[in-house]
Amino acid sequence: FLVFSLQTGRIDKSYPTVCGHTGPVLDIDWCPHNDQVIASGSEDCTVMVWQIPENGLTLSLTEPVVVLEGHSKRVGIVAWHPTARNVLLSAGCDNAIIIWNVGTGEALINLDDMHVDMIYNVSWNRNGSLICTASKDKKVRVIDPRKQEIVAEKEKTHEGARPMRAIFLADGNIFTTGFSRMSERQLALWNPKNMEEPIALHEMDTSNGVLLPFYDPDTNIIYLCGKGDSSIRYFEITDESPYVHYLNTFSSKEPQRGMGFMPKRGLDVNKCEIAR
């Protein structure tokens, strides 16, 4: 993968890369506590943690700070703990979630018997005491990693067979995107203390791109984009009905291929910019 200072236009083919993995890199995540540290998960079944030099890369980086080995299949998800330093979660196609002590390179917690099918995504809650996962078996699970137990789960969160996403919100509720039985895209809001019925459930449209939620806890706004969509819809999450309040849609001529948030301190607050 590449790490470079933000610029537009083409990047020179000879630009240095981070290239220690022996298989394709599937996910990367910047450390929230150290701007120079980034983790990557790969098809080579390992997770690697890298130290990027203060002034960026001048030579390709082949030596990670630490290699985390423990998955038996490719690692599709890496996510740093939001509040504890040096704690990293990884989830692989072996249906296992491992929480690592990056300082020692050891696995702290191995949750390998909770998922029977592929894990689509994993989300920490605000203080890092719980995680929620969306899986191919159509279940959303809320897991207490320290007790190593499932504290809440919902079967058929969305009835459709296509991929789902589930993320924790700042207030502890869970926001999910998925598909209905009629292949319509849906979004839903859940209270993990009572997963019987959603707080809110909305049908969107019948496009087949998976809706990826990007959440800003400061403004309680969720931005939904889909691969191949040329629009981004955004919603405010509120305490009273309709709970998921539609704000607006941004449309462009170009379809999206991927998306990522600018960190808050990269925003132009003088122009009242709240997200980029």
From TrEMBL:
<dbReference type="InterPro" id="IPR001680">
    <property type="entry name" value="WD40_rpt"/>
</dbReference>
<dbReference type="InterPro" id="IPR036322">
    <property type="entry name" value="WD40_repeat_dom_sf"/>
</dbReference>
<dbReference type="GO" id="GO:0001755">
    <property type="term" value="P:neural crest cell migration"/>
</dbReference>
<dbReference type="GO" id="GO:0007015">
    <property type="term" value="P:actin filament organization"/>
</dbReference>
<dbReference type="Pfam" id="PF00400">
    <property type="entry name" value="WD40"/>
</dbReference>
<protein>
    <recommendedName>
        <fullName>Coronin</fullName>
    </recommendedName>
</protein>
<feature type="repeat" description="WD">
    <location>
        <begin position="68"/>
        <end position="110"/>
    </location>
</feature>
<feature type="repeat" description="WD">
    <location>
        <begin position="18"/>
        <end position="60"/>
    </location>
</feature>
<dbReference type="GO" id="GO:0051015">
    <property type="term" value="F:actin filament binding"/>
</dbReference>
<keyword id="KW-0853">WD repeat</keyword>
<keyword id="KW-0677">Repeat</keyword>
<feature type="repeat" description="WD">
    <location>
        <begin position="112"/>
        <end position="153"/>
    </location>
</feature>
<dbReference type="InterPro" id="IPR019775">
    <property type="entry name" value="WD40_repeat_CS"/>
</dbReference>
<dbReference type="InterPro" id="IPR015505">
    <property type="entry name" value="Coronin"/>
</dbReference>
<comment type="similarity">
    <text>Belongs to the WD repeat coronin family.</text>
</comment>
<dbReference type="InterPro" id="IPR015943">
    <property type="entry name" value="WD40/YVTN_repeat-like_dom_sf"/>
</dbReference>
